[in-house]
Write a structure and sequence with these properties.
The strands form five sheets. An eight-stranded mixed sheet has the order 6-5-4-3-2-7-10-13, with helices on both faces. The protein has a five-stranded antiparallel sheet with strand order 1-20-19-16-17. 38% of the residues lie in helices and 23% in strands. It has three domains: 134 residues, Serine Threonine Protein Phosphatase 5, Tetratricopeptide repeat, CATH 1.25.40; 90 residues, Immunoglobulins (Immunoglobulin-like, Sandwich), CATH 2.60.40; 229 residues, C8orf32 fold (Roll), CATH 3.10.620.
Length: 476
């Protein structure tokens, strides 16, 4: 045993001596190159640096030494050699393009070959990215996931499984009205058109128990209602089909005292446009700024309060309406906004978040058509306009096996039913909120999305990773 220990000690001592010698050789050549560089002997410096790279211990210093050689050849006026070593230093892992751009050692290249130097600078970030990917055990190629802070617990939504909703869907065949048009907005337009023709507008008739079923049944008996009831009807019908919707009160400046000084519309979350859009069921219309994308109430207000009300365009489906003329009449109502998320439930009033949204330094009074409201204030756009139907994907490294990640999913989808996940463009499959993702060597893709109880699919998150780990098939 003592003899074995002695032999091992001798071998270990020899290895240490060899390593120290190699280090000394590298340090001597590198330091000599640096002295030559400082003395302006560019060619000698380049050759000494190149000799240093032949030492076994040079690998960890390779990117910097290659960069130094490029500096020397640039100072010596050797253009091709300078560019060649610059490229090689980037491919070896040099990752400071900002310093490369400012380094005075390359003034000759900038002055005499500006196009070639600019091309190098333009290519550098991608080269650095590729090197980083190749050298990382697991590299992120793409990470497209929701990172906002929407907290669904701050809002109240109609209960999709409420029996009254089932009655509304079945008795009035809402799905047939909306049809299976591939365009979500076309479906919303059809339902808007249907809702706007359920009764003739009456500004004096309030429904004390306003919900879609009560309103529709009373309208069938000849009752006529206000803009408020139109907005509630449409919001309930959208929610019944899985489109999260709410009622929004509008008011003119300075306050909404008196009859006709306020108006009520519906806002609905659009997957198609990835935003809230405002629809006016009394007028069978929506708003744009001249383009094809419908606006939210807030976007309309920003234009109006910002002095660009002339850009607001009411677009509608009543063939006998002059919507261009009505745009001028209705635009002033967007001065004040009163959100209710969600005000009316079937059979009960909600205790939901309700607030008047303050922007542009304008402080409205807390009245709607003369009635004081118990509201909250906010200047937080994200609170007033939550991003819905999003899925957030977070990744953590799993302990076993080593090529696995733990995936956790969260969502911002009202009426949520399930998650769906697909790997590497295979079929979508139902998924738990947390699961293990075992990576294959090379490129791996994961997509995740939320689906609500109406079968509406939310925006998919997409993660693409490159695994440079060797997969061991005998791992569990």
């Amino acid at each position: 045993m003592r003899l074995i220990i002695t032999i091992v000690a001798v071998i270990w001592s020899a290895v240490n001596v060899m390593a120290q010698t190699a280090n000394q050789d590298f340090e001597h050549l590198h330091d000599s190159g640096h002295v030559a560089y400082q003395e302006g002997r560019w060619v000698d410096a380049a050759r000494l640096y190149a000799q240093a790279l032949t030492c076994p211990v040079a690998d960890s210093f390779r990117p910097a030494v290659l960069y130094n050689i490029a500096c020397c050849w640039s100072l010596a006026g050797q253009v091709d050699s300078a560019f060649a070593y610059l490229h090689e230093s980037l491919r070896a892992g040099y990752d400071n393009p900002e310093w490369l751009q400012a380094d005075t050692d390359f003034d000759y290249l900038r002055r005499e070959h500006p196009g070639r130097f600019a091309d190098l600078l333009a290519a550098a970030p991608e080269i650095i990215r590729e090197v980083s990917i190749d050298r990382s055990p697991i590299a992120v190629l793409s990470y497209e996931t929701y990172t906002g802070g929407t907290d669904l617990s701050r809002y109240r939504w109609d209960e999709y499984d409420d029996p009254s909703f089932d009655t509304l869907r079945n008795e009035y065949q809402l799905a047939t009205i909306a049809t299976d048009d591939p365009s979500e907005f076309a479906q919303m337009q059809r339902l808007l058109d249907w809702a706007s023709t359920r009764w003739q507008h009456s500004g004096n008739n309030e429904c004390r128990d306003a919900n879609a079923l009560n309103l529709l049944r009373q309208a069938e008996q000849g009752e006529r209602f206000r803009c408020v009831e139109f907005a509630v009807l449409l919001a309930n019908c959208y929610s019944a089909l899985g489109f999260p919707a709410r009622v929004v009160g509008l008011a003119q400046y300075p306050v909404a005292y008196g009859f006709g000084r306020g108006h009520v519309v519906t806002e609905v979350w659009s997957n198609e446009f990835q935003k809230w859009i405002v629809l006016d069921p009394q007028n069978n219309a929506w708003w744009t700024d001249g383009g094809s994308t419908p606006l939210s109430a807030d976007e309309c207000r920003r234009l109006f309060v910002g002095g660009h009300g002339d850009r607001l365009s009411m677009v509608g489906q009543h063939s006998d309406r002059d919507y261009a003329r009505q745009s001028r009449a209705w635009a002033p109502y967007f001065h004040h906004l009163d959100y209710n998320t969600h005000e009316i439930y079937f059979g009960k009033r909600s205790q939901s978040l309700s607030f008047e949204y303050l922007v542009d330094g304008v402080t409205p009074e807390l009245h709607f058509q003369g009635f004081a409201r118990n509201l909250h204030y906010t200047s937080d756009h994200h609170l007033a306009y939550p991003m819905l139907n999003q899925t957030s994907v977070s990744l953590t490294h799993a302990a076993v096996p080593g090529d696995s990640l733990t995936v956790r999913l969260t969502h911002t989808m009202p009426f949520f039913e399930r998650y769906e996940v697909r790997l590497d463009e295979n079929q979508w499959e139902s998924s738990p909120a947390s699961f293990s993702w075992r990576l294959n060597p090379g490129v791996n893709m994961l997509e995740a999305r939320a689906v609500n109880k109406a079968g509406i699919v939310g925006k998919a998150s997409r993660i693409v990773l490159q695994s440079n780990l060797s997969r061991s098939e005998d791992q569990p």
